[in-house]
């Protein structure tokens, strides 16, 4: 089965620069390469400003990439130019946003918010079919269909995020970019929303790009994790390896920021600061240290990193 994994998304050397060529140029995404397999959850982590949202938005073609390729189920996303092709692509790829307050139109009833995709794509033949579908979607995300005629402000943050999820699911997508979907929610309801997303992944055959700024939540839900900083992917590996066998200094610094429910540990916990390396003439790129475990490094680092990885493996 391991070999039978099918790539649903291939990102090659993606660059997304803002104000390119000007003195205000921002290299938000600066040449990243990774694949996502059908059915998996790929966690993308990194502190604020790393380029995670820009990556997600480029993949779903909210931006025109500065350079690079995005291949989604055979569609060259970076080459889409016609509105009709973009529309078709967006049926298969949807986004869930961080802020459930800002992302729902306050003047629209929940029914119409959720049915937006159904209307745009003409997925219902009658008003009844449209309404039945909305009721079904509300139930699917754990909300009461009787509330369809209410407005977003009548719902809590967690409920609003469920509405956002129902809206994304309305067009039966294959792939969802979830950009920090729980960061704005109370800690007490974060797990509920994550559990819902994981249930939906199974029942609706979804693939997730799940963006987060810390490793604590993505650890449990991701199959693989990419660690991002300053527009680059610095480490990419199965979730347990990123968590238990980190090889890049930036990943170690992110891990040192994850609190544990152990007071003794918390008292002695030291946050390791990450100091980016001074570039020299040896190029840094994402290199495979052991199968499936990649680190952004120089060729001359590889031996040391292989030893570091082997030391972890022998410790167990
Ligand atoms: P993250 O989601 O990891 O917090 P972002 O992708 O939002 O990071 O931002 C990456 C960098 O790009 C930041 O320096 C941010 O200020 C900049 N940036 C994001 N969007 C724009 C934009 N539309 N115009 C100019 N700079 C932007
Ligand atoms: Mg972001």
Describe the structure.
It is a single chain. This protein has 316 residues and is an alpha/beta fold. It has a single domain, classed as P-loop containing nucleotide triphosphate hydrolases (Rossmann fold), CATH 3.40.50.300. 36% of the residues lie in helices and 24% in strands. The chain has helices at 52-59, 83-92, 110-120, 127-140, 157-169, 187-203, 215-221, 239-244, 249-255, 263-268, 302-315; strands at 7-18, 26-37, 41-45, 67-72, 75-76, 93-96, 175-179, 207-212, 224-229, 232-238, 285-290, 293-297. The strands form 2 sheets. It has an 8-stranded mixed beta sheet with strand order 6-7-8-3-9-10-12-11, with helices on both faces. A 4-stranded antiparallel beta sheet has the order 2-1-4-5, with helices on one face. A hairpin with a 2-residue loop joins strand 4 and strand 5 (75-76). Helix 4 packs across helix 5. The mean pLDDT is 93. It binds adenosine-5'-diphosphate (ADP) and magnesium ion.
Distance between the termini: 25 Å
List unreliable stretches of 5+ residues. none
- Gross morphology is globular
Note the total helix count: 11
DSSP strand count: 12
> How would you sum up the major sheet?
8 strands, mixed
Overall domain count: 1
What pattern of helices and strands is seen along the backbone? EEEHEEHEHHHEHEHEEHHHEEH
Which structural class do the helices and strands define? alpha/beta
Strand order of the largest sheet: 6-7-8-3-9-10-12-11
CATH-level-2 architecture: 3-Layer(aba) Sandwich
CATH fold annotation: Rossmann fold
Cofactors, ions and other ligands in the entry = adenosine-5'-diphosphate, magnesium ion
Indicate the CATH class: Alpha Beta
Into which percentage range does the β-strand content fall? Answer: 15-25%
Radius of gyration over C-alpha positions, nearest whole angstrom: 21 Å
CATH superfamily: P-loop containing nucleotide triphosphate hydrolases
Q: What share of residues is helical?
A: 25-40%
């Amino acid at each position: 089965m391991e070999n039978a994994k099918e790539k649903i998304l291939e990102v090659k050397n993606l660059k997304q620069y803002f104000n390119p060529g000007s003195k205000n140029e921002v290299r938000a995404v600066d040449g990243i390469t990774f694949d996502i397999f059908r059915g998996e959850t790929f966690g993308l982590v990194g502190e604020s400003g790393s380029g995670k949202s820009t990556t997600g938005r480029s993949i779903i073609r909210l931006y025109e990439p500065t350079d690079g390729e995005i291949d989604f189920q055979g569609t060259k996303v970076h080459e889409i130019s016609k509105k009709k092709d973009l529309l078709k692509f967006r049926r298969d790829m949807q986004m869930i946003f961080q802020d459930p307050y800002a992302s729902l139109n306050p003047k629209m009833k929940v029914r119409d918010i959720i049915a937006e995709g159904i209307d745009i794509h003409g997925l219902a033949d009658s008003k009844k079919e449209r309404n039945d579908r909305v009721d079904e979607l509300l139930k699917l995300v754990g909300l009461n269909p009787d509330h369809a005629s209410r407005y977003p402000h009548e719902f809590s943050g967690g409920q609003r995020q469920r509405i956002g999820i129902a809206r994304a699911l309305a067009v039966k997508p294959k792939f969802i970019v979830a950009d920090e979907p729980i960061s704005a929610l109370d800690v007490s309801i974060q797990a509920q929303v994550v559990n819902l997303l994981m249930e939906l992944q199974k029942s609706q055959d979804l693939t997730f790009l799940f963006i987060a700024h810390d490793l604590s939540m993505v650890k449990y839900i991701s199959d693989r994790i990419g660690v991002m900083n300053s527009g680059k992917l610095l480490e990419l590996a199965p979730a347990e390896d990123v968590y238990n066998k980190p090889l890049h200094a930036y990943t170690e610094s992110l891990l040192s920021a994850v609190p544990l429910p152990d007071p003794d540990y918390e008292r002695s916990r030291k946050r390791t600061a990450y100091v980016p390396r001074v570039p020299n003439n040896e190029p840094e790129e994402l290199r495979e240290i052991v199968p499936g475990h990649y680190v952004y490094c120089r060729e001359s680092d590889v031996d040391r990193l292989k030893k570091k990885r082997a030391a972890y493996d022998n410790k167990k």
